[in-house]
């Protein structure tokens, strides 16, 4: 069945080893063929890239074709520059003549006298405005100082009133804080007392005090079922006032003997009862 289900079958272990392990000569021949194919592919890729580069180079324009347009525009601008400069010079000459005529009609001394008078008037107005501005600034500063002094006085009075009010409220706040702290301590103490009582009522010592016992084997593990012990086995019994050792006599029942019932103590105040 294994031979029919296998993908490859060998008649002997030697034949299986020959089929599993390839021949070194065949591997070398395969590697040489792959290297030759890779070199041929690289040469073909390089030739194709070289031909593409030549085609792109033929498609690019030459330097003369690139520079011919700007050179023509430069020549045209140079041809237009000389007539334009001549026209500009003539226009400036005309404007200069008009300005010279206007200057001839107006005396520089008269204009200088007018400018001097205007300058003196502006100087007087500037001095008057400066004096008025200084007076207004002084008055404004004085009013601001008065307001600042008034605000300082009001702030000092408000601070004094606030301090007095806080000083009056401080004893009442201290008293409330003391009462709250006392109540919190009493509440926490009562909760602690209740938790301690509940822990004592639910702990194993209270259960042992009612007549129960804890039985452990030699390893210290609790014995919960009769199948966990065997005849002659030593056990440890823990009761409310200590421990003692016992030996299992057998698997039969031991005749009961009269046992005086344990006196049941009244639970402490605040301590719960499981029963």
Strand arrangement, major sheet: 1-2-3
Enumerate the spans where pLDDT stays under 50 for 5 or more consecutive residues.
none
Overall outline: flat
Determine the mean pLDDT: 81
Count the helices. How many? 6
Indicate the percent of residues in helices. 55-70%
Provide the β-strand percentage band.
5-15%
**Total beta strands:** 3
Biggest sheet descriptor? 3 strands, antiparallel
Ends distance: 74 Å
> What is the oligomer described by this structure?
single chain
Query: Secondary-structure element order, as H and E?
Result: HHHHHHEEE
How does the helix and strand content classify structurally? mainly alpha
Radius of gyration: 60 Å
Q: What order do the helices and strands come in, and which of them pair?
A:
Elements lengths: L1 H4 L7 H8 L3 H36 L3 H43 L2 H95 L1 H6 L4 E3 L17 E6 L2 E6 L28
Antiparallel strand pairs: 1-2, 2-3
Write up what this structure looks like:
The protein is mainly α and 275 residues long. Among the domains are: 13-56; 108-202. 70% of the residues lie in helices and 5% in strands. A hairpin with a 2-residue loop joins strand 2 (234-239) and strand 3.
In short:
By secondary structure, the chain is mainly α.
Task: Offer a few descriptive terms.
three-stranded antiparallel beta sheet, mainly alpha, 6 helices, 70% helix
């Amino acid at each position: 069945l294994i031979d029919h289900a296998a993908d490859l079958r060998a008649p002997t272990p030697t034949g299986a080893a020959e089929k599993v392990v390839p021949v070194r000569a065949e591997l070398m021949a395969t590697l040489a063929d792959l290297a030759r194919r890779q070199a041929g592919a690289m040469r073909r890729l390089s030739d194709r890239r070289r031909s593409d580069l030549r085609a792109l180079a033929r498609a690019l324009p030459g330097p003369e074709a690139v520079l011919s347009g700007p050179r023509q525009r430069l020549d045209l601008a140079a041809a237009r520059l000389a007539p334009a400069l001549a026209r500009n010079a003539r226009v400036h000459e005309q404007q200069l003549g008009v300005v010279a005529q206007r200057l001839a009609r107006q005396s520089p001394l008269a204009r200088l006298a007018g400018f001097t008078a205007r300058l003196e008037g502006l100087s007087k107005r500037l001095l008057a405005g400066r004096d008025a501005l200084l007076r207004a600034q002084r008055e404004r500063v004085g009013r601001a100082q008065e307001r600042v002094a008034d605000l300082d006085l009001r702030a000092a009075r408000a601070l004094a009133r606030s301090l007095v009010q806080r000083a009056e409220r401080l004893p009442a706040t201290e008293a409330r804080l003391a009462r709250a702290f006392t109540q919190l301590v009493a509440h926490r103490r009562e909760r602690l007392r209740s938790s301690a009582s509940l822990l004592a009522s639910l702990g194993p010592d209270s259960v042992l005090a009612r007549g129960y016992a804890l039985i452990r084997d030699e390893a210290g593990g609790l014995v919960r079922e009769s199948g966990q012990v065997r005849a002659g086995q030593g056990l440890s019994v823990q009761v409310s006032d200590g421990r003692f050792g016992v030996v299992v006599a057998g698997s039969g029942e031991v005749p009961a003997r009269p046992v005086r019932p344990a006196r049941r103590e009244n639970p402490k105040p605040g301590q719960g009862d499981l029963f």
